Amino acid sequence: MSVFKASVFFAALVSSVAVAAPPEVHVVIKDHRFTPSEVKVPAGQKIRLIVDNQDATPEEFESHELNREKVIAGKSKATIYIGPLEPGRYPFFGEFNEATAQGVVVAE
Q1: Where is the signal peptide (predicted)?
Q2: Which CATH number belongs to the domain containing residue 73 in this structure?
């Protein structure tokens, strides 16, 4: 393969990867609460949910409806992939602080 063909192939590969990246949604955990507590996402697309736990203690992001469960250490971030989702509401909560850590993903 010539250098030119290899360069064209690599550029096309990088371009297709960039187009295929799922949209990102950011949620913060602070004072054992999710902010925002309601996040809207497009229906029918895979989403990259970035959860930033700013508390000093760990929290567990959990959603039965999304079929996701992940422990996030204090002062750290986690990536959780969700979807593609049908239109609707998908509640989530922090299992370690369930009384205050509540949220919902709304797929529209």
Answers
A1: 1-20
A2: 2.60.40.420
Reduce the DSSP state of residue 65 to 3 states and report it: coil
| 16 and 9 Cβ atoms separated by less than 8 Å | no
Rg (CA), the chain: 18
Is there a domain that residue 9 lies in? no
Chain centroid offset of residue 90 CA? 13
Looking at the 3D structure of the chain, how many domains does it have?
Answer: 1
Range of the domain at 97: 24-107
The dihedral through the CA atoms of 42, 37, 79, 90 has a sign that is negative
Question: What SS3 class is residue 14?
Answer: helix
* Tens-place pLDDT, residues 55-95: 999 999 999 999 999 999 999 999 999 999 999 999 999 99
